[in-house]
Amino acid sequence: MPYRVFEEYDIEVTEDIKNQYQGVIKNIGEDVTREGLIKTPERAAKAMQFLTSGYDKDPVEILKGAMFAEDYNDMVIIKDIELYSLCEHHMLPFFGKAHIAYIPNGHIVGLSKIPRIVDVFARRLQVQERLTHDILECLHNTLKPLGVAVVIEASHMCMMMRGVQKQNSVTTTSGFRGQFEKVETRNEFLKLITAKLH
Ligand SMILES: [Zn+2]
């Protein structure tokens, strides 16, 4: 079976965003009628809707749909989760990796659900700090584990392409709940992911 992506877009919303992108293209001094740009407003409108499709999804429902009772009380770590988001200040991409750990308290969650909730929160207009916090709180409140840790390292196009043009800087944010607030547990987690940290 070939890989297929099914995409659905609201026709009216797409038309509206398309018209606005046409305005943007004209205002930067381009010709919206030239061949290479003729379908750009529509493509950009669809791309923007996809990149912000996290608003329509419920991360709690995603987690609850794959929680299983299990007597496992050791740290579960998912490293190097690819992450792509849009900064809410410039609507430019920021991208990098998330490293997430939790210590189960009677329930584990299907491993693929954790990258999925990262996507749900990342596909919104975000700041890296809030993205970190959103993921942390969602896992903490839904899974009710003994502890949760989230570390995100990301590069921001708004820093790299404009403004200070610091092309190699990486921003790291982190949040810890429960047992990860204890230094020893947090250090164990950081040690386990540290080889991948910048
Ligand atoms: Zn920005």
Explained architecture:
The strands form two sheets. This protein has a five-stranded mixed sheet, with helices on both faces. A two-stranded antiparallel ribbon has the order 1-4. β2 and β3 (93-103) form a beta hairpin. It is α+β, with helices and mostly antiparallel strands and 198 residues long. It has seven helices and seven strands, in the order αααββββαβαβαβα. Zinc ion (ZN) binds at residues 87, 89-90, 92, 156, 158. Residues 87, 89-90, 92, 156, 158 line the site of zinc ion.
The string of secondary-structure elements, in order, is HHHEEEEHEHEHEH
- Supply the helix-strand structural class: alpha+beta
Q: Taking all residues together, what is the mean pLDDT?
A: 93
User: What form results from the Cα inertia axes?
Assistant: elongated
**Ions, cofactors and other bound molecules:** zinc ion
Strand content: 15-25%
The largest sheet, given as strand count, sense and whether it forms a barrel, is: 5 strands, mixed
As a whole number of angstroms, the C-alpha radius of gyration is: 20 Å
Protein name: GTP cyclohydrolase 1
Pathway: Cofactor biosynthesis; 7,8-dihydroneopterin triphosphate biosynthesis; 7,8-dihydroneopterin triphosphate from GTP: step 1/1
EC number: 3.5.4.16
Keywords: GTP-binding, Hydrolase, Metal-binding, Nucleotide-binding, One-carbon metabolism, Zinc
